[in-house]
From TrEMBL:
Protein name, as recorded: Type II secretion system protein I
UniProt record similarity statement: Belongs to the GSP I family.
InterPro entries in the cross-refs: N_methyl_site, Pilin-like, T2SS_GspI_C, T2SS_protein-GspI
NCBIfam families documented for this protein: gspI (TIGR01707), IV_pilin_GFxxxE (TIGR02532)
Its membrane topology: Single-pass membrane protein
PANTHER family according to UniProt: TYPE II SECRETION SYSTEM PROTEIN I-RELATED (PTHR38779)
Organism encoding this protein: Ideonella azotifigens
Cell membrane is among the record's keywords: yes
PROSITE patterns: PROKAR_NTER_METHYL (PS00409)
Entry superkingdom: Bacteria
Post-translational modification: Cleaved by prepilin peptidase.
Keywords in alphabetical order: Cell inner membrane, Cell membrane, Membrane, Methylation, Transmembrane, Transmembrane helix
Length: 121
């Protein structure tokens, strides 16, 4: 038997294999982190959507023509607090009002803007 025909892997081959595995694990970890961030963002935007829907539904159920102006408030959804700004604006038709609801998280980052038009009742 030839002494140079030893069985097994050389150190260089093992180091290349370890480097490939490390790169694959790093890429997988980054992808997993992105998925987690996207899931958290989706949760926040969904909760903000619920807050905006609640604000607009309250205005619709009031059965009164909203006054032009801006008001602020807070909304609790699933133990998170969101800030809301409701802006009522005139439209070219005086029988309608445009309502914009802006929802931000507790650090002030705007998450969602939802708009609708309400008629005079």
């Amino acid at each position: 038997m030839n002494p140079r025909a030893a069985h097994g892997f050389t150190l260089v081959e093992v180091l290349v294999a370890v480097a490939i595995v490390a790169i694959a694990l790093a890429a997988g970890s980054r992808a997993g982190g992105s998925l987690l961030n996207n899931a958290q963002r989706l949760t926040s935007v969904t909760e903000a959507q619920w807050c905006a829907d609640n604000e607009l539904t309250a205005l619709k159920l009031a059965h009164r023509f909203p006054d032009i102006g801006e008001s602020t408030g807070e909304c609790m959804q699933l133990a998170h607090t969101y800030r809301s700004v409701v802006r009522v604006q005139a439209t070219p038709n005086p029988n309608f009002r445009r309502i914009d609801v802006v929802i931000a998280n507790d650090s002030g980052q705007q998450l969602l803007t939802q708009s609708t038009v309400l008629p005079r009742y």
